[in-house]
């Protein structure tokens, strides 16, 4: 288990564990009550293959939740990565039952049976700097656009469900090479490396703890990371040292927007950005404008932001 960065009044915990989680349905209500009773917000996913989620709350509350999860025998040994936030990065608490804790949609992919070789953040630069290594970003295109490792391949996927098809199509290019894969917190790579190995690719590696652990542990002056790392909460992105980034969300399409992209004439806060302006109707934009008016009014009065405006 990892220690938490000390800055920020809220502790954010990104956690997962692949395991044979028997009777996962029975955990839903108790976990929801536990979190809500302690002011914890975020999302936890429960499935027969384990748990995945990101939550935030006061440090003592998050510590209590992690301890509670560790009491479940199958969940002992959780992979937890901590960061912090100045403001609560979630609007509500959700505990959901799923078929998979990270959805690839391919039957039989089991990280407990076969997975790539874990690479510590301190050793990652050496691996991806090797000319014999193919570096693959397993995240979605909108995440890659904000930042990635130097020289990494962007599969151009809109969803993790698209990754197996990309890997199949590029099997020959990957064969006989070292394949180094990475994702935000490590969980997607558990399945991505298992799938690539099932294609007969032997030398498959992935960044332990994902980009988040790399940005926490590797000094910026030694880093091969470029840009910011998208996170699925109201912080939008983090950068080296896990400090909050500068990207914001377009409230119309919920895609990240960089400071440079906000200069586009197609960008209107809460209403549109250059990627979604032409995909929305005038009726849509009127609704978004009214929502933005309500948000600004709530902020001006110091009231909670309307739930419909956020995640």
TrEMBL record:
The keyword tRNA processing applies. GO terms for molecular function: oxidoreductase activity, acting on paired donors, with incorporation or reduction of molecular oxygen. It comes from the Bacteria. One of its GO terms (biological process) is tRNA modification. It holds the Pfam family Rhodanese. Its EC number is 1.14.-.-. Residues 292-311 are annotated as: Disordered. It catalyses: uridine(34) in tRNA + AH2 + O2 = 5-hydroxyuridine(34) in tRNA + A + H2O. The keyword tRNA processing applies. It is an enzyme of class 1 (oxidoreductase). Keywords: Oxidoreductase, tRNA processing. Residues 129-223 form the Rhodanese domain. InterPro entries: Rhodanese-like_dom, Rhodanese-like_dom_sf, TrhO, TRHO_N. Catalyzes oxygen-dependent 5-hydroxyuridine (ho5U) modification at position 34 in tRNAs. PANTHER family: RHODANESE-LIKE DOMAIN-CONTAINING PROTEIN 7-RELATED, THIOSULFATE SULFURTRANSFERASE/RHODANESE-LIKE DOMAIN-CONTAINING PROTEIN 2. Belongs to the TrhO family. This is tRNA uridine(34) hydroxylase. It comes from Pseudaminobacter soli (ex Zhang et al. 2022).
């Amino acid at each position: 288990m990892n220690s938490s960065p000390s800055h920020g009044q809220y502790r954010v915990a990104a956690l997962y564990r692949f395991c044979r989680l028997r009777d996962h349905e029975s955990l839903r209500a108790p976990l929801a009550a536990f979190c809500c009773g302690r002011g914890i917000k975020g999302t936890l996913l429960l499935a027969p293959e384990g748990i995945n989620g990101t939550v935030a709350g006061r440090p003592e509350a998050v510590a209590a939740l992690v301890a509670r999860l560790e009491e479940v025998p199958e969940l002992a040994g959780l992979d937890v990565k901590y960061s912090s936030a100045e403001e609560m990065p979630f609007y509500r608490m959700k505990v959901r039952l799923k078929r998979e804790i990270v959805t690839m949609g391919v039957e039989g992919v089991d990280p407990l049976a076969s997975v790539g070789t874990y690479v510590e953040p301190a050793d990652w630069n050496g691996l991806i700097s090797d000319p014999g290594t193919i570096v693959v970003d397993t995240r979605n295109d909108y995440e890659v656009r904000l930042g990635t490792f130097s020289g990494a391949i962007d599969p151009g996927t809109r969803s993790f469900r698209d990754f197996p098809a990309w890997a199949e199509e590029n099997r020959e290019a990957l064969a006989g090479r070292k394949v180094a894969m990475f994702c935000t917190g490590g969980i997607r790579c558990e399945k991505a490396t298992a799938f690539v190995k099932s294609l007969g690719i032997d030398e498959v590696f992935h960044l332990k703890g994902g980009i988040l652990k790399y940005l926490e542990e590797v000094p910026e002056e030694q880093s091969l990371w470029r840009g910011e790392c998208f996170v699925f909460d109201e912080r939008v992105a983090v950068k080296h040292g896990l400090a909050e980034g500068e990207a914001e969300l377009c409230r119309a399409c919920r895609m990240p927007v960089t400071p440079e992209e906000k200069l586009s004439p197609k960008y209107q806060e809460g209403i549109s950005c250059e990627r979604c302006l032409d995909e929305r109707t005038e009726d849509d934009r009127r609704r978004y404008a009214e929502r933005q008016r309500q948000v600004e009014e709530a902020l001006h009065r110091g009231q909670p932001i309307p739930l419909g405006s956020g995640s």
